[in-house]
Design goal:
Blueprint lengths: L2 E10 L2 E11 L4 E6 L5 H8 L7 E6 L2 E2 L9 E4 L14 H7 L7 H10 L15 H14 L4 E5 L7 H16 L3 E5 L12 E5 L5 E5 H10 L1
Parallel strand pairs: 3-8, 3-9, 6-7, 7-8
Antiparallel strand pairs: 1-2, 1-4, 4-5, 9-10
Helix pairs in contact: 3-4
The chain binds adenosine-5'-diphosphate and magnesium ion.
Amino acid sequence: MQIDVHNLSFAYGHKSVISNLSFSLSSGDYLVIRGKNGSGKSTFLKCLLGMNPVKNGMIFYNHEDINNFKDWTSLGYVSQKFEEFNYEFPITVNELLNISSLKVIKQSHRLRALDQMGILDLLNQNINNLSGGELQRAFIVRSMLNVPKLLILDEPTASIDKLSTDYFYKAVNQLNLQGVTVIIVTHNDTIEFLNYSHLLTMNNDMTFTFLTKDRCKIAEVNI
Ligand SMILES: Nc1ncnc2c1ncn2[C@@H]1O[C@H](COP(=O)(O)OP(=O)(O)O)[C@@H](O)[C@H]1O
Ligand SMILES: [Mg+2]
């Protein structure tokens, strides 16, 4: 998925959060977004997801204005907050992966992915009984099995253990090598495990820097 962000500004009421953000990604790029709490990272992802309507500036997916975009099922998303999650129906992890699949996925693939994320034993558990970290891993498995064109991840490993985190980053790298465009908000301390191609740093004063990979090492020193 090719993405063009052009002079994007966003405010909640009178509170401006994003001001004149512009950058472009080609299909298969891997963008890491970082910045302090409150710098607008999640807000920006919600603009990309169509949850925050774009009124000032423009976002294009494959040259199509996001306001006309319809192919939302080509996007995968793992959100930052799972503690607030409460599913209406008492479904199991297995059912969650089934009902939200965009294509037919072999049960053996599903079981392997669950096993690699360390939650195979939760297959038949009601998802409302899972801890935040377990649920997050279930959603990560779901986002990876669907192989989207664009995978958007908001601090996806915040509440999972190191082993699952390592597996997850490897799986994301693998998806990216298959051509999936990846946008991930993450903490500074995990950035070294990521095979990113671009780095967007968002600041609380709404300034930003956007660097391609060869410039990222320079940024490491300054942040
Ligand atoms: N739904 C909302 N309504 C009003 N203000 C919000 C809302 N969501 C986030 N904010 C505010 O917008 C700013 C950016 O938040 P957020 O995008 O969550 O930052 P980050 O993800 O970088 O920590 C913060 O000041 C936050 O309080
Ligand atoms: Mg956030």
